């Protein structure tokens, strides 16, 4: 790829800010940075690898920003780490070893699914809030003490483990909207409110992105666009911090509209390669 111009670098940094902020609040920030990188001529697989490495600082910032929501969840989180580790390694392996034309065939499908998750997120949030309220009113609240004591049944624990493992495979391979997928599926198993689920999601996504990014650097460092990595990293670090602090004040409808438009641009761009 040719050297980027200053305006392209500025736009990638701005995209990184948006992605870091959206990842902290909702998830799906990849649907901002990935289309921008592809639009500037970065090959899709290279864009995915570079994006994964660059978003890690933002994941760290957003996880730190949600430390209050993580209080009381660390024992449960520790039990889920193996699922995230194993799944992300498998996803990274698939990305590195499957033919690039397979990626270009699969990713538009994954993008469509991710965009559907983004569009359906408000309805999902309302459902999860109603569900949590019913459980609380019915005296079935799995509060902090239950979580620390391993209050989940064996069946729910296994189901949550499988959900995290499969989502981590997806995240290691492509990553777009893995946070939304995690919140959606874990919300059906765990009774936490959305903010606590979001905190758990941020840390699990951090694990997945860190493992996959490390794998890309070790095995495929020559296929990473380091200019893009630095731009996305700087932007996502700022965005992750801001998103965790003030991101809840942003208009969710506007964020979803931006994500959907950029996602559609990425699909068209990949299909016309």
TrEMBL record:
Keywords attached to this entry: Cell membrane, Membrane, Transmembrane, Transmembrane helix, Transport
Keyword hit for Phosphoprotein: no
Transmembrane regions: 34-56, 77-96, 102-124, 158-190, 202-219, 226-247, 253-272
Chief location bin: membrane
Membrane topology of this protein: Multi-pass membrane protein
Location of the protein in the cell: Cell membrane
InterPro entries: TM_pro_TauE-like (IPR002781), TSUP (IPR052017)
Record bears the keyword Cytoplasm: no
GO CC list: plasma membrane
Protein origin, superkingdom: Bacteria
Family named by the database record: Belongs to the 4-toluene sulfonate uptake permease (TSUP) (TC 2.A.102) family.
The protein, known as: Probable membrane transporter protein
